[in-house]
Specification:
alpha/beta, four-stranded mixed sheet, 4 strands, about 45% helix
């Protein structure tokens, strides 16, 4: 079961239904059991800063943190996926909004990118080494672009004063990323 909670107070309100749709899409594409539990929480900057210090001993808010639970992994082709608790993803929409402005795309697209990134961390992907980084970021880009292509003109992903962007316009900026993920022990 996927649960998305917006505790951020961010305006305009984040489209939690689209986050849930993205998470469902990514988990299905990654061959994760449909009953696996995933919790996505959107928080304000102070709450994210508190988590950042508590778990990583780093000051200030970050964009996304992942907290794995049962260490579920994608099922190999032909195998049945395991049931269990995937974990929690915490996203800060205010930080995402700043990053989106810098990257030239909508805040909602940045949030979807961060949720995709968080899910991949929960599934055991990392980007500490250059080969891991390439694998994870290529997969992240593929998953997000495939999801965005399903609804390329969704008005919920466009800033109020921006014209809708095509996937080709968004794609070049999706490959950049910065994040922190919590220790899994």
């Amino acid at each position: 079961m996927i649960e998305v909670n917006d505790e951020s107070g961010f305006e305009p309100a984040v489209d939690t239904a689209e986050i849930s749709q993205l998470a469902t899409w990514v988990l299905r594409e990654m061959r994760v059991h449909p009953q696996a539990d995933l919790n996505v929480v959107l928080v304000d900057e102070q709450s994210m800063a508190d988590l950042h210090v508590k778990w990583l001993d780093l000051e200030g808010p970050t964009d996304v943190m992942s907290f794995p639970m049962d260490e579920l992994r994608p099922a190999p082709p032909g195998a049945e996926p395991q049931e269990g608790i995937l974990g929690d993803i915490v996203v800060c929409p205010a930080v995402a909004a700043r990053q989106a402005r810098e990257a030239g795309h909508a805040t909602m697209e940045e949030i979807l990118l961060l949720v995709t990134h968080g899910i991949l961390h929960l599934l055991g992907y990392d980007h500490a080494e250059s080969d891991e980084r390439k694998e994870m970021f290529d997969l992240q880009r593929h998953l997000l672009l495939a999801f965005l292509a399903r609804t390329p003109n969704n008005p919920n992903r466009h800033e109020a004063n921006n014209q809708p962007q095509t996937i080709d316009e968004v794609a070049p900026v999706i490959s950049r990323f910065s994040c922190d993920d919590a220790p899994s022990d």
